[in-house]
Amino acid sequence: MPTLESISLSNSEIHLWICRSEAIRNPSLLARYSTLMTPEESAKQSRYHFEKDRHQALVTRALVRTVLSKYAPISPEDWRFDKGERDKPEIQPPKHIEIPRLRFNLSHAKNFIVCGVTLEKDLGVDVEYCQRDNDVLGIADRFFSPTEVKELFSLPENKQRSRFFDYWTLKESYIKACGMGLAIPLDDFSFSIIDSSPPQVSISFAPQRRDIPEHWQFWLMYPNASHRLSVGIRSIDKKDYQLKLFETVPLESANPVALPLE
Length: 262
Ligand SMILES: CC(C)(COP(=O)(O)OP(=O)(O)OC[C@H]1O[C@@H](n2cnc3c(N)ncnc32)[C@H](O)[C@@H]1OP(=O)(O)O)[C@@H](O)C(=O)NCCC(=O)NCCS
Fold this sequence. Notes:
By secondary structure, the protein is of the alpha+beta class. It has a single domain (15-256), classed as CATH 3.90.470.20. The chain has helices spanning 27-34, 39-47, 51-68, 136-143, 146-154, 157-178; strands spanning 13-19, 81-83, 89-91, 102-109, 112-119, 122-129, 189-194, 200-205, 216-221, 227-234, 242-249, 253-256. A 5-stranded mixed beta sheet has the order 4-5-1-11-12, with helices on one face. Strands 6-10-9 form a 3-stranded antiparallel beta sheet, with helices on one face. It has a two-stranded antiparallel sheet with strand order 2-3. A hairpin with a 5-residue loop joins strand 9 (216-221) and strand 10. Helix 2 runs antiparallel to helix 3. Coenzyme A (COA) binds at residues 60, 86-89, 105-108, 126, 143, 168, 171-172, 175-176, 179, 181-182, 186.
């Protein structure tokens, strides 16, 4: 598929663009990515201490810009972004052209960058690398809701780590959709997961969190053996969103894809 070919996005779809950044090593392609960034983005990217972080930041900016250009007649280098109250990036509407009301959210974790795109609705995306050696029960006990903690502790030991990352990514997708980061206490909302294919996910809220479960739809995905991926969308008027997945190498390829990835 030619890279900048346009693609249509209906108001009942969410498009998820996956990029496995570590395989992208072609120096001339990476040099082209550099030309897409604003001076501020370049300065931020070059400040990362480790090469792997500079690489991920470079590919991330190229991913966001090339993906958005598939939905509107704007060149990748011409997108400009604003930040919400807690730094959630949003598209700055271009001055001289009317474009679809695109929203996006992105997440990165070890060799995985995911950019979700939708029309108008609040969207949160989170990907986590699950092979980390962290104290999952300790973190859950401290931060998760009482019902999540109870469910996690009741599982056989060999299922607890996996379920922890289910909750973690789902909780991140909610706070990222709200744009509020950790300003929302993580025990003010609670996920329930039914292990089916695909998993069935629902959210509930503590009374002090004035939000409505019926306004939300979530997906929990297993893109490969080491990563967990969650997406959440807030929609007051509609549910039944369709998720469409693509894998891309920015400026080089873009293909529909199914999970798990090969
Ligand atoms: C900053 C935060 C929004 C996500 O952080 P994260 O999980 O470390 O990082 P991710 O890769 O998933 O997401 C980062 C991207 O989210 C976007 N983002 C930044 N602030 C955001 C906000 N307030 N809301 C939504 N998205 C935001 C940005 O695009 C950012 O990438 P960029 O800087 O390359 O543009 C926030 O949720 C946070 O601080 N999390 C800390 C992790 C944690 O303790 N989670 C507990 C879960 S149980």
